Amino acid sequence: MENADTVLVIGTTGEIMPASELPYIAKTRGAKIIEINIEPSNYTNKITDIFLNDKATVATEKLEKNFN
Length: 68
Hints:
CATH architecture: 3-Layer(aba) Sandwich
Largest sheet: 3 strands, parallel
Order of helices and strands: EHEEH
Helix content: 25-40%
CATH topology: Rossmann fold
Radius of gyration: 12 Å
Oligomer: single chain
Strand content: 15-25%
CATH superfamily: TPP-binding domain
């Protein structure tokens, strides 16, 4: 996380420690946070740069099409 440029946060509420701290570590080091979730999480209005409001399978398929 300390060296990440971009972090995908997929399908989590952001409540379970210590894993929930990882996106915050990346953000403080300048990473962009892309969140894929069906509902807003603890990250959405705090550190998320791009929020994709969709199911993980749908959103990742859309991302794959755009990057291939």
